Amino acid sequence: MAPSHSAPALPFAHLNLRRNPFGETDLVDRLDFAVVDVAHHIERLRRPGAAVLFLGEKGHGKTTHLIAIQAAFPNSIYVHVGEGERPRFAESMPLFIDELQRVPERERRRLFRRNVSFALASHEDVTDELTRAGIEVQTVHVGGALTRGALATILERRIAWARRGAGPLPGVGRATIRKLLARHGADLRAIEQQLYDCFQQLEHIREV
How many domains does the chain fold into? Predict the structure, then answer.
């Protein structure tokens, strides 16, 4: 008689999760746990010649702001400019460009002549370039103080998003949230990476 083999345990099933909640996600999934207020940007971007420019360091929420706005413009084009890439920018209203600093200045000048609105994320401040092109730009510096309450909400939403079924879930305690903010500040990506490593090793449902 052949030996019987039990089915392998599902990853994270012991935590009542489908997956590690702090791993990489699709852009659209980020909307499920984003805590951003972008309503006031949406109306201005319905007008050609307007722009919103999000400035900040990596991991501080520029992309999250862009995709939250894009949800109001389902037919628009979102372009992430990878390192060393020279993407083509199709016609779009608004036109969403992430990592704008990787686009050569000459190409940016051509883009800014288009009769559209722009939602932009960049490490480099191009406010003056936009103004010279006659574009009415609102520049937003992201990554300021991240409050304990906002971080707690983001983390709770991420864990709930990865829920497997009914029942209790692991959580992130207030003491841990204070330590994360003290160590990483507003760098949400670094916070998520630390929690990813923590949840990889978590053996049972509890508060970390």
Answer: 2
Structure confidence at residue 193 as a pLDDT band (50, 70, 90): very high
- Among 161, 157, 167, 162, smallest CA distance to 200 is for 162
| Phi and psi based region of residue 140 (left: phi greater than 0; alpha: psi -120 to 50; beta: remaining) | beta
Q: Domain residues for 65?
A: 45-141
> What is the C-alpha separation between 165 and 16, in angstroms, rounded?
6
Instruction: Classify residue 137 by its DSSP letter.
Output: E
195 closest CA partner among 178, 172, 168: 172
Could you tell me which residues are beta bridge partners of residue 97? 79, 120
CA distance 155 to 160: 9
Can you count the helices (H) and strands (E) in the chain? 8, 5
Q: Same domain for 84 and 134?
A: yes
Q: Encoding tokens for residue 48? A: 């050609």
- Write down the pLDDT at residue 10: 66
Q: List helix spans (H) across 48-173.
A: 62-70, 105-111, 127-132, 148-161
Q: Among 8-17, 49-58, 116-125, which range has the highest average pLDDT? A: 116-125
pLDDT for 120 equals 97
